[in-house]
Request: fold
Amino acid sequence: MSLPAIPRSSGDDHAPSAVEGRRILCERAAGRPLPHLAGTPVPTEQARGKAENLIGFAQVPVGIAGPLRLDTTLGLREAYVPMATTEGAMVASYSRGMKVLTAAGTARARVLREGLTQRPVLVYPDAAAAERARALVPGLTEELQRLTASTTSHGKLVEAVGELAGRRLVLCLTFTTGDAIGINMAARAADACARLLAERTEPEAYYVHGEDVEKRANARALHEGRGRSVVCDVLVPPEVLEQHLRVTPAQLVAIHRTYEVGFARLGTQNHLVQSANGLAAVFLACGQDVAYVTECATGLLDLEQRPSGELYASAQLPSMLVGTVGGGAGQGTAAECLDLMGVRVPCGANLLAEILAATVLAGDLSLLASFCTHEFVTAHERLGRNRPGASG
Reply:
């Protein structure tokens, strides 16, 4: 492995010298200075277009988990993963899970599908009028694609389909957005497309966010997906689990089976154990829109003990809404954290999604193991908020 283990101090691990040592490690990994993570203020003018009535910048502690070694679409990658959080023990837990993935040597993540959906709705006097409008959509697709191209140099309309909801026509539009999350880009194009169809069919009304899944948990996020659909899986030898997590494959499979019973009782679309935890922490560190965690955390965890003894583990996240350009990703601590992971490159948004899927899988394995060994509470007592002001 080319990236060294994260150094810890046996004395006060939050002393300036200990923190500085890790920051130097991160600067070497990023290949650049990281002044804003060290506390250099961001110029206030950089917040223009991002926050109104500006008074300053929030400060959230940032720790690094890892190193994580992962087979990605851009080849083998190693990275420290920055996490902004105030939940003690969380970064340590994710770091422990990443050691398992790295030691296993088989962790692989891939974006399976790209497509940011928008669903404007047009309202007609009756169902017959809505059905006549729907029949026009296939013949308008090329025109809608040209219209989209006139609104953005990055986004592309790849599909336009009409669905009926009584007298309402849902215009289902799917865009690719390059390395941007592309929400504003897609909304602008969707509004133009809905307006064109309205001009041709004269509905009573149309709404650009008529069937809106923006920033809310929804069933479609699991079975259809939105943004980037990504999966990470790994085959972990039992000795690796014993060394790093003090559990067996059978123990993890058994506790996961109990969790599945609980998920069925809850009726949730999120069958991962703590996906929102890791995603929110990396989103905060990397300038992503944290509100999209409500969609992004949706997913599936799969655990199985193979006849040969290894644990097969996978995390699938069908609705990963992330970007490495635009929004808050290009400045301050966000840009520094993205550079630390090496994702501000062409196809970097896919790479970020793959690292996030691996992060989620690592966190779920570590947390389940702590429940099996009954170490969850003691870890929080030792590292977390129950010891305010404690060092070490």
In short: The two ends are 27 Å apart (CA to CA). The first helix runs from residue 16 to 30. The longest strand covers residues 62-72.
